[in-house]
Amino acid sequence: MSALSALPFLKPVHLRPPRSSPGGQRRHTLPASEFRCLSPEDAVSVFEIEREAFISVSGDCPLHLDEIRHFLNLCPELSLGWFEEGRLVAFIIGSLWDQERLSQAALTLHKPQGSAVHIHVLAVHRTVRQQGKGSILMWRYLQYLRCLPFARRALLMCEDFLVPFYQKCGFQALGPCEVTVGDLAFVEMQHPVRGHAFMRRNSGC
């Protein structure tokens, strides 16, 4: 069982009552909304959303399909997908990092002994953007990290225009990131992961 399935706030959330057939018997329907860890089987759906979201803006993706499969095999518990009626609409993929700041190696490595969660990518399907889903998903992800005893902080790198979004999510800018991708430069941001004992006592973690 994944760590995610044990957390009340990350169990499937049903946003509308089950439908009934004309005879009064309930029909089987997929959950209206569900949050769960991603698996390697989700990799293609993840990449399709990511490719559309990033290539039009920066010309490249943070993670390519083989890298998505790599992280979903190594550390699926550090990912989170938002599914609506069985369809992936938004996701986060992370891995562990063991240094104070991100370096070029952080783009491809998972450090199992690390205490920093490197958030590689957050993306939302184009049909449901401008609905606040990115902020909601990040909030749920950070709540989940608070229940992982090894997680002490979350790190990410983003372009300048995304800094205000992540600041609203509670991240603080650490300054320019040493990582570059082609001509792109990034700001490194951090979010402390606090309250481990409190969260474990009061949320069933």
TrEMBL record:
PROSITE patterns: GNAT. The gene is Aanat. It comes from Vireo altiloquus (Black-whiskered vireo). Keywords: Acyltransferase, Biological rhythms, Cytoplasm, Melatonin biosynthesis, Phosphoprotein, Transferase. Its EC number is 2.3.1.87. Pathway: Aromatic compound metabolism; melatonin biosynthesis; melatonin from serotonin: step 1/2. One of its GO terms (cellular component) is cytoplasm. It is found in: Cytoplasm. This is Serotonin N-acetyltransferase. It catalyses: a 2-arylethylamine + acetyl-CoA = an N-acetyl-2-arylethylamine + CoA + H(+). Residues 33-194 form the N-acetyltransferase domain. The keyword Transferase applies. InterPro entries: Acyl_CoA_acyltransferase, GNAT_dom, SNAT-like. GO terms for molecular function: aralkylamine N-acetyltransferase activity. Belongs to the acetyltransferase family. AANAT subfamily. CDD domains: NAT_SF. It comes from the Eukaryota. Its main location: cytoplasm.
